[in-house]
Amino acid sequence: MPTNVPDNSFSNHFLVALNSSGLAKDYFCDTISLLIDHNLEGAFGLVINRPLALTLADLLPGFEQPISCPVLEGGPMEPERLFFLHSAERQYAGTLNISETIALSTSDDLLADLRSGNTPNHIVAVLGYAGWGSGQLERELAETIWQLTPTHADIIFTAPFTERRNQATALLGVDLNLINPAAGYD
């Protein structure tokens, strides 16, 4: 294991915003993010429930293949940077396997496959990302701003965007509708 990865790394987890804890007007209100990387230097993730009114043809000049690929707003950082979350049965140069079923790619080979219609079984385009500095995510978790949950590929690739937060917390047996914003945790 690399020395900069803590034993309790939150990579390959969902991060669900708990709106009752101060995010009501924050960028992350009502979001669920997939944590791609978490180490001693910070964390990197992609918001997975904010669809944009864009198509791949809007993003990629000359792209005309009608691929079913939602485009999501992945976070406030570098909003012009394009990532692809996809099912892991296909691998490309530089593909990062997040789990056995979820991968992240930015490869030109993937773009070539998209143009030819030869795509992974599931794929989502994501513009921008979310980032946390060293210790920031841990502090926010201690302040109950977020709920960590296990990941599940179906939530990323097939669940309705409006249901993703609820489905992720349901993996823990938690119903977001029953959380009392006035309840204290002191």
Mind explaining what this structure looks like?
- This protein has a single domain, classed as VC0467-like.
- Helices cover 17% and strands 30% of the residues.
- By secondary structure, the chain is α+β, with helices and mostly antiparallel strands.
- It has helices at 56-59, 108-116, 136-142, 153-157, 164-170; strands spanning 13-17, 32-39, 42-47, 71-73, 77-87, 96-97, 102-105, 123-133, 146-150.
- Mean pLDDT is 87; it is low at 1-6.
- It has five helices and nine strands.
- Strands 1, 2, 3, 4, 5, 6, 7, 8 and 9 form a nine-stranded mixed sheet that branches.
Topology:
Layout: E1 13-17, E2 32-39, E3 42-47, H1 56-59, E4 71-73, E5 77-87, E6 96-97, E7 102-105, H2 108-116, E8 123-133, H3 136-142, E9 146-150, H4 153-157, H5 164-170
Parallel strand pairs: 4-8
Antiparallel strand pairs: 1-2, 1-9, 2-3, 3-8, 5-7, 5-8, 6-7
